[in-house]
Give the backbone structure.
Amino acid sequence: MTKFVFVTGGVCSGLGKGITASSIALLLKAKGYKVFMQKFDPYMNVDPGTMSPIQHGEVFVTADGCETDLDLGHYERFIDEELNYTSNITNGKIYSSVIEKERKGDFLGSTIQIVPHISNEIKNRIYEAGTTSNADIVITEIGGTVGDIESSVMMESLRQIRLEKGRKNTLFVHTTLVPYLYGSNELKTKPTQNSIIELRRLGIQPDIIVTRAPLDLGEAVRKKIALFGSIPEENIIEAKDVSNIYQIPLNFHKQNIEEIILKQFGLQVTTSNLKYWEDLLETVENLKGEVEIALVGKYIELEDAYLSVKEALKAAGYPYKTKVKINWVDSELLEKETTDLKEIFQNSSGILVPGGFGSRGIEGKILACQYARENKIPYLGICLGMQIAVIEFTRHVCGLEDASSTEFNEVCPNPVIDLMADQKAVIHKGGTLRLGNYACKLTKGTLAYKDYNQDIIYERHRHRYEFNNKYRELLESKGMVFSGINPDNNLVEIIELPDHPHFIASQFHPEFKSRPIKAHPLFLSFIKAAIEYPKK
Ligand code: GLN
């Protein structure tokens, strides 16, 4: 029978609940258990796909094409497991599915109510994650803070699950803040006490309390939290501030969090295999060199908008013992006449244009791409970054000055990037992009083939527009190589320029498959080229 761990948060958001949940999952996996993860987001959007990245950070995409909260990226990077559509549930998904069932007549005769109809739907999604993943333990994180109106039904569902499955099969982890007050120079437990009271008001008694604090709690504070929380002192797990998030699982391990969980579940406490994670931490804490990469985007005021790209760049530096420093470049700034590109890019040994939507800042990205191509600076284009590279090349190398994408100019005379017929028919914006895994066949002898060393790869997509195959011959005749093609529909997946030291771009998003312990091949070769760049 699947066991369930629920991770809730108190006091305020931003305490690292996602990292707590991921760390627990990592530690249980290191004990040999099969784990699966899930996140509940209490907003009414069906998924974050239609939200601005400036509000909620990046939209993470699973292999099966689900647009999800960025916390799922943390999960996948920590536990190195592919998640799926059962992993991100929102209020929007729950309510729309209950209403759809009502319209179909599934509940004929009944009055549809929050409890039991909405709460049952939530419970079913949690149980579904258990049955479809076949995991020993499912870890479910509840977004938001205990006491929020939005998440109150979710909490009610958790209360019922505890009732149905009992303490042997369910465990509640509550993460809270223990702030330090300057002046009186002490850690304060009252916010934690209050958030536990709030949790109990919803009928939930925590089994483990994870305390975020700037210092060690000390005996007196631990005793106080244990007393008010009604838990044994050893069930308080201290999440002291760290400089490096990879430290957190190891800190939790030292406090035996896995043992507490496994004992409550009546599961065998085996020895942990954490050597690979300790090695990772050792590497990350002893990086010697540094390489600077310019990331040219238009959502740069929120770094989380590019979270997976940022993590993928960092990870690609690890095998070279190199710290990757990101120079955040606002693409709109590049469009100003007074901007000196040479000055902007002077310290960067690589230029990366990531994904994006809409026409704002597009010309600036084209300028950045042109600068990389002409000055032989390593270039990596991702999704929109590939479309930009195609437009730039068509304009400046093939001489079609009016080339563009129909996303930016619907009546463009040379639409090198365009909608396919199936996308032209789409009316709804939500969930209708090309999403998730698609196959890509690589051409032998190309940079892409060298990077992957494989014939067929599967990578995750999130875009509506495609390379327009009508222009393939023209671009090829001028030196662009189409090194990755979808074998099923002949769409372009990867382009490269062989007369450049390192110029490659993909229609898919490689960043979603990068892991700290297993950097992505396209990022690895990009960082390697960037490290070698100044020597050239
Ligand atoms: N806006 C482009 C498209 O829809 C690129 C999307 C992206 O970069 N994720 O095709």
Q: What stands out?
A: The domain at 287-535 is CATH 3.40.50.880 (Rossmann fold). The chain has 20 helices and 23 strands.
